[in-house]
Amino acid sequence: MKRVVVISDLHCGHVVGLTPPSHDIRHENESDRLVDSMRRRYWDFYADALDALQPVDVLIVNGDTIDGKGAKSGGTELIASDRAAQIGMAVDAILYAKAGKVFMSFGTGYHVGDQDDWELGVAREVKAEKIGSHDWLDVNGVIFDYKHHIGGSQTPYGRHTAISREHIWNILWNEHGEYPKSDIIIRSHVHYYGFAGGVGWWGFTTPALQGYGSKFGSRRMSGTVDFGLLSFDVEGKEQWTWKAHTLKQRKLHAVFKA
C-alpha cells in the first residue's frame, strides 16, 4: 500500500494562508489578534493531520503555494509581501509532510507569477520529482490525473459539473491517443471539497489550505469554503480508499441587533 496526500492552495504570505510557526507574526490590536489565532489554528490542524498520516509515500502539491503580491488589494492582506519569504513558508510547510516523493503543479498566474514561475523555487527547495502544468502519476497501477485549475460554480448543485467535464475531456484526449486514461482526477483552485464518479473513474476538487478572510471571497463570493487536505491509500487498481481531512472553521461573524 502507498499513501498519497494531496494539498493545494496554501497561499503562503496571505493573512489566512498556511503559515509555519517560525514565519508567523503577532499583532497588537484585537481584530488582528483574532485573525492571528485563526492562522495558528489552521497550521495546528495541518500539522496534526500530517502527523497522523505518517508515513506519507507521495505528496501532490497542487498549486498556489504562495499568494504573491496581492496587487488587487494593494498588499493589504499579506503578512509577507516578499515572494522569497513566501517561498520559504511554502517550503517549510511542504517539508513538514516528510514525504518520500513530492510532485507539484503550477498555480494561477496572479498568485505565482504571470511571467516568472515562482513555484519553480519551491520545487527546487523541496527537491520535487516534477512540477508541471498538467501531469499523471501511476501509483500501484492507479493513474492520478492532476492539475491546479478548474472552473467553479456559485450554485451548490453545479459544483460537480466541472470535474465531470474533466472526465469527459480525458476520455476524448485518450481516444486521440494523447492522454493516459485517468482513474482519479484531482483539481484544486476553487477552495471547496467535492467529488463525483462512475464506473472506472473518480474526480475530486480539493479543499484549500487557505482559510476564511480574503477580501475577494468575503465581498464577492457566496459559496462555502473548505479547509483541509485529501489522503489516498492505494493498494491496486480496484483497491484504494480516500479520506478528506477538513477543519470546521469557527463562526466568524456576530449577528447585530438594530
In short:
Strand 8 and strand 9 form a beta hairpin.
Largest sheet entry: 6 strands, mixed
* Unreliable stretches covering 5 or more consecutive residues: none
| Strand arrangement across the biggest beta sheet | 4-3-2-1-10-11
Separate helix tally: 6
The name of the CATH architecture of the domain at 2-131 and 207-247 is: 4-Layer Sandwich
State the separation between the terminal residues, measured CA to CA. Answer: 58 Å
- Structural class label: alpha/beta
Radius of gyration: 18 Å
CATH fold-type name of the domain at 2-131 and 207-247? Purple Acid Phosphatase, chain A, domain 2
**Average pLDDT number:** 92
* Text of the CATH class of the domain at 2-131 and 207-247: Alpha Beta
Q: Roughly how much helix do the residues carry, as a percent range?
A: 25-40%
Count the E strands.
11
Residue share in β-strands: 15-25%
Q: What would the principal axes of the Cα set say about the shape?
A: globular
Q: CATH superfamily assignment of the domain at 2-131 and 207-247?
A: GpdQ, catalytic alpha/beta sandwich domain
Order of helices and strands: EHEHEHHEEEHEEEHEE
